[in-house]
Amino acid sequence: MSTLPVATTTSHRWWVLVSLSLTQLVVVLDGTIVNVALPQAQVSLGLTDTERQWVVTAYALAFGALLLLGGRIADYAGRKRTYLVGMIGFGLASAWGGFAGGAVDLIAARGLQGIFAALMAPAALALLTVTFPSGRDRNTAFAVFGSVAGAGAAVGLVLGGVLTEFADWRWCLWVNVPIVIVTVVAGALLLRESRAEGDNRYDIAGTLTVAAGLASLVYGFTLAENGWARLDTIGFIVAGVLLLALFVWIESRVAQPLLPLRVILHRVRGGAFLMQAVAGSVMIGGTLYLTFHLQIVLGFSPLLAGLASLPLTVAIAVVAPIATKLLPAIGPRPLMIAGPLVGAVGLLLLSRITPDGAYLTEVLPGLVVLGAGMGMLFVPLQNLALTGVAPHDAGAASATANATMQIGGSLGLSIFTTIYAAASGHATGASSPAALVDGYSAAFVAAAVGLLVAAVVAVVFIRGRKEDLLPSGEHVMVHAG
Questions:
Q1: Between 332-350 and 267-280, two packed helices, what is the crossing angle to 10 degrees?
Q2: Which PROSITE patterns match (predicted)?
């Protein structure tokens, strides 16, 4: 693989880091920035609850389904070229979404954002890798890059609240445009092209089947809010399962698969990926209903709702360094069992919300406990994604971990929306605060059940000596979701 230096001077390299970190910030915050804006966007555009859900799902699904392909394109077509195309496309999609006049425009724009994010995110990580190939500077660069990724969700919640309250919900999309302009200019001036050498074939069949399979599965679960026994619901879910089975068959036979099956069939890694999907469903799907409860039921302003969601991120940020220090001493298994259990307790606390309950007593404790549990879980998950991975599969394993986070979020949100609709009486038109709270509580309970399942997965799959479970060498796992 070519490892041409991306910049020739030390100062240029750090400016490259600034530019690429801004890119990472945009990718991550766009997963949450619209959450706070959704109640106002729903009123402004007359969105149904299902359409509201797809504003989030379209981004996460497109991003997750195409992330592996985006990495291949970056390696083969050129990382700088792919990065610039992804950034420009992302900016145009953001501008279109800001001008959306209805549900179709907004959902399509969010889907395009996800597609172009799937190009620019892996390209940015690859460019960072070749810009800082080794040594202390590499460690510093990845630490900064990872910190920006970790802070992106919190930045999105607060920024979304500020823009929605003091400007307009549309600015939650338009805000990307000036950032894109700055990063595109910086990238064009500072970056140098690099690409992988050798036989570069794209797995088109694998890409089409996995994308269609996931979309069909998510859409089928979305239709389930109108009835599980309906022919269209069953048809889309069955079609999704069959297409994903076909994807696995294709990957076992092509010379250069989109996802080498050896990456996911390893017992420990496979368990970690399953748990990553559950974590995505909780962080992307489950907590979305917290924002709705704060604004629609409790009457919080968008800014206050964003700030009120921050204890979740703060708790993760506080617990994660502690888990990092514990990891070499006790190994990943205890953390991966305890983390989901603690997180499930937090969600069950949140499920006790009432229409006239106080934030400090009904919401804050659950948020803090949930954040503590997720902080315990995220640290070992990032490491186990690279357990036993050959160097040439490290990129695929890293991309798979990020992809499963997004895909888990989109699948989880579709399932939680179905549960919310049934519990709230949405299908019969009920929309009283009590009915809404019933729906939100049911979604939190469903997310808690998901975390309990994740704890069982850890018990069954995460086995072995701690020395064997933790990856060796200088592999770096950066969480982009």
A1: 20
A2: MFS, SUGAR_TRANSPORT_1
Burial class (CB in 10 A: 0-12, 13-18, 19+), 138: middle
Gap between the Cα atoms of 431 and 454, Å rounded: 33
CA torsion 221→227→229→233, rounded to 10°? -30
H helix runs in 99-131, sequence order: 103-131
**Radius of gyration, CA atoms only, the chain:** 21
DSSP 77: H
CATH T-level topology, domain 261-481: Growth Hormone; Chain: A; (1.20.1250)
Residues in Cβ contact with 11 at an 8 Å cutoff, skipping those fewer than 6 apart: none
- What is the identity of the amino acid at 202? Y
Contact 449, 347 (CB under 8 A): no
Whether the pLDDT of residue 367 is over 90: the answer is yes
- Which pTM does this prediction carry? 0.82
Write the CATH number of the domain with boundaries 9-199.
1.20.1250.20
Count other C-beta atoms under 10 Å from residue 9's C-beta: 9
Residue given tokens 């991975």 in the structure block: 389
Structure tokens at 148: 């920006």
